[in-house]
Amino acid sequence: KAGVTQTPRYLIKTRGQQVTLSCSPISGHRSVSWYQQTPGQGLQFLFEYFSETQRNKGNFPGRFSGRQFSNSRSEMNVSTLELGDSALYLCASRESPSSGNTIYFGEGSWLTVV
Amino acid sequence: DAKTTQPNSMESNEEEPVHLPCNHSTISGTDYIHWYRQLPSQGPEYVIHGLTSNVNNRMASLAIAEDRKSSTLILHRATLRDAAVYYCIRVSGSARQLTFGSGTQLTVLP
After folding, report:
1. Mind listing the pLDDT tens digit for each residue in B57-70?
2. CA distance B92 to chain A (A)
3. Which of residues 28-47 of A touch B (CB under 8 A)?
4. Residues B85, B88: Cα–Cα separation, whole Å
5. Nearest to A99 among B32, B44, B102 (CB)
6. DSSP sequence for chain B
7. Of A33, B40, B75, B102, whose CB neighbour count within 10 A is largest?
8. What is the pLDDT of residues A12-33, one digit of tens each?
């Protein structure tokens, strides 16, 4: 079956703009989580959604938000973009938030803020 | 604050075993240890995970210390395709947290 699909793969935005990234989980997976990866900070957890509800959130400002739809697809939004938001944004899915479930990552969306 | 620590880099010769360590200073009984690896410009790929017992699959073995404060990912015969950044992740069910290690860059020498 298809893996985790993220769109767009690459995008360039200007400071102050906003961006929306999309994630389609593996079929049957109801938990979707988002991560930011930068050379300096490594992989950092943004938030996780399960059954359209945000379960937990990492230590990021309120400019970072997300949502999950009834079909488990998810979007994340970053408003008022800053240069430091340039990063690889990864989406991952699993069947449920159980700690024993395998997490499957997408290829990521490369965001460059200029 | 819970920490998951890994060495920044390791080297191995091709076809030799590799032991990648990870320390998880704070871990509860329901926290699983997951290992993923990441190639350049790709998302992390699942390798293995476990709770208490040692685990084996076609890719690797995972050895978990008795006190569960450390784990070791074992690649039995390293190949050039195993060169990647390996991440150790503590996945907490109760606290709903994922704690990432900083990753170990594995270089495999021919």
Report:
1. 988 999 999 988 99
2. 6
3. 33, 42-45
4. 10
5. B32
6. ---EE--SEEEEETTS-EEEEEEESS--TT-EEEEEEE-TTS--EEEEEESSS-EE-SS-EEEE-TTSSEEEEEESS--GGG-EEEEEEEEETTTTEEEE---EEEEEE-
7. A33
8. 999 999 999 999 999 999 999 9
